[in-house]
Amino acid sequence: MWTGSAEMTRTIEVRVAELRQLFNAMDPAPFRERDLDRRAEEFIVESARECPPDSRLALLVHLDRPAGLHDEAAMLGEAIQGYFRLCAVGARRRLRELFRRGRTSLLIALVFLALSVAASDGLATWFGPSNLAQVIREGLIIGGWVAMWRPLEVFLYDWWPIRAEARLYDRLGRMAVTIDYREDASSDAWRSDWPAVRNNLT
């Protein structure tokens, strides 16, 4: 869920038993560098999509254990922000690759269209106004324009969802992250959770 305020800050709220549940347990990287858990990421991203595009985003993690290390909230914020910043970089990389393929496809399509038109004109000269020649000419011209479909799709439709995704990741990469602790749980529960586990391993 998410909540809002008069300052146009939209707070996305999640609840977990342990902080490490937010991260992908199969990722061998250190916790601070791990990918987010797929379900956690989907929930945060989809919640952010529902927020007004000009609002600031914040993440409130309801944690079913008491506070642990004094800087774990800051470390969690750095990990989540860093993950979404990397997602933004990846989205922009996909956008550049899409435009590169689009430019290549456009060049190929223009060459093919020019050859189709030239071949169509040649048929008109060689065979005159016969019905067969007319059918072949029209087929060549239609094929040339069909070849333009893919580059037009790229430059008219495919790019803007990726750019919107990159902008959303930018916002998520800047969002403040806070933790709401459950103080009546076991006081030692934090010792088996991230980042305490990470510190014990380093």
Describe the structure concisely for a colleague:
56% of the residues lie in helices and 12% in strands.
Blueprint of the fold:
Layout: E1 2-4, E2 9-16, H1 38-49, E3 56-63, H2 72-127, H3 131-146, H4 149-172, E4 176-181, H5 196-201
Helix pairs in contact: 2-3, 2-4
Q: If helices are DSSP runs of H or I spanning 4 or more residues, what is the number of helices?
A: 5
Tell me, rounded to a whole number, the average pLDDT: 86
Rg calc: 27 Å
Biggest beta sheet attributes: 4 strands, mixed
Q: Give the ordered list of helices and strands.
A: EEHEHHHEH
Proportion in β-strands? 5-15%
Count of domains: 1
Helix residue percentage: 55-70%
> How do the strands of the widest beta sheet line up side by side?
1-2-3-4
Q: What structural class do you assign from the helix and strand content?
A: alpha/beta
Number of DSSP E strands: 4
Q: Give the terminus-to-terminus CA distance.
A: 35 Å
Q: Based on Cα principal axes, name the global outline.
A: rod-shaped
Parts with pLDDT < 50 across at least 5 consecutive residues: none
